[in-house]
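REQUEST ID: PR-0412
SUBMITTED BY: lab tech R.K.
PRIORITY: routine
TASK: structure prediction, single protein chain
INPUT:
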Amino acid sequence: MARIFITGSSDGLGLWTAQRLIKEKHAVLVHGRNEKRSRDALAQAPGALGAVSGDLSTMAGMRAVADGVNRLGRFDAVIHNAGIGYQEGRRVETEKGVPNVFAVNVLAPYLLTALIERPRRLIYLSSGMHHGARGPLEDLLWVRRSWSGAGAYAESKLCDVLLAFAVARHWGNVLSNALEPGWVATKMGGPRAPDDPVKGTVTQAWLATSEEKLALSTGEYFYHQKLREPNPIARDVGAQEALLAECERLAGVPLAA
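STATUS: complete
OUTPUT:
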């Protein structure tokens, strides 16, 4: 039995993955952005180990989540599932001028990775839209550009792959991978999304628990349990290090060696 923490698990892919892993007899800690959402998660994922609450668009919320996880001891895997979609119609700022999309999709996974006791496996959810992001990534907070929800989302999902690959390089004792779950009918994906929601949960659960050789990869990108080549920028070590530096600047916390 593995101990697994899943961010953003009060609905959608995070909840479905939690339900799958609980059925497989794993100990799953769920997460909601507030106490009500956490209660919702527990109600829909009977048998869960518990829940932690925290708004991942704020530094205080990110730290509250990390503290809550650490109070329960070391986990075997952390699945960074929480995310904001591409339909953001305006630029929503949090502290330090960080847009909501970047805060939840990128800065939160970075800070949680840095603060949560190091697990054996880390899984970061990306999106097929990350293939459309273009470099150089010099304006991640969209200060100099006109806001584009789709563009900001695509960049944030590329950053998730960059983060997964950077962690794989820096932490040789951790399996760190990224994946795209497919376009499925969640609140983010919309009701007409064509992909199978069941298949959308398989890869993250498999990467979190399987002892199969391929599931024990690190620094790779997956789609439905198969390797898929990511946006070439994701393999650029310079881009990985630039993202780590920007996240450290914003969060005030380095990724430990």
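NOTES: Strands lie at 3-6, 27-32, 50-53, 77-80, 121-125, 175-180, 221-223, 226-227.
REVIEWED BY: pending
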